[in-house]
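In this section we walk through a basic example: taking a raw amino acid sequence and producing a predicted 3D structure, encoded as discrete structure tokens. The instruction is simple. Fold the sequence below.
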Amino acid sequence: MSKYLVAALYKFVRLEDYAALRAPLLEYCEARGVRGTLLLAAEGVNGTIAGPQAGVRAVLAHLRADPRMADLSHKESWAAEMPFYRMKVKLKREIVTMGVPDIEPESMAGTYVEPQDWNRLVDDPQVVVVDVRNDYEVSIGSFAGAVNPHTASFSEFPDWVRRQSQPGGVLSGKSRVAMFCTGGIRCEKSTAYLRTQGFDEVYHLQGGILQYLEDMPSEDSRWRGECFVFDERVSVVHGLAQGSYGLCRACRQPVSEQDRLSEFYVEGVSCPRCHDKHDDARKERFAERQKQVGLARGRGARHVGVPPAHTASPAPGRQD
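The resulting token sequence is shown next.
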């Protein structure tokens, strides 16, 4: 039976005193047996925590006791094993890195669209639908007809917008843009950025892909493929059931069933994407790590640095 509550959270809100919040928040979490990672920045808070139900709920209440975070929302799941080794509260310039100063998602984000209204919006031929996730995430699934910016990191997104706003680009002359991401945090920032660039009607999917897959019956869905998630399930499908993808421990990218049949796939060491990107010495280290993982599993133990398989739900706040 699952006994650890996992809470993924984020909120864009001005926290000018964020550095002063770090030590008391860390102490509060540790005193209640809560572990995970929380990011604090002047633009807000973002992270995933886990622990005894009472402890996690106490931390959430502690955050909401600050009037600036009174309406903080979170997503819950349960884990049979503690998915984190320690509690970390980190100070950052941004809670999700875009690299553009003075973006204010708390006041400038686009219009939220509920999952039940999303199909009607994206079916409109006048709307440009943009997937703001990274290329390796898009590669395993997306909404039908969505534009893939082919970015390796979120910080590349503003440059893509600038290029595609030029004559001939997919955004050129367009005023209606719908955007989506895994859990919502990247969409809030990207829609705010587009509004600063003069786009009049910018929308984003409330709750992200995960909420859509949870709420939308598969027979009515515009989603195609699977959704990459930042936990040991690797991917999910409708109903948030576990998907078919595994994870390459060398490059941290998803591997399909076909990838795992490749001569270049060695569990924990390489996959078709990265087999030629690491030298022999590094591959030897990966192989030794995988050997230790196997030995730990054989003892029924958990190897440091490898989370328990398929226990926690995705953390759209921190990783998204």
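Looking at the output, two observations stand out. The mean pLDDT is 90. Residues 280-298 form the longest helix (19 residues). In the next section we compare this with other chains.
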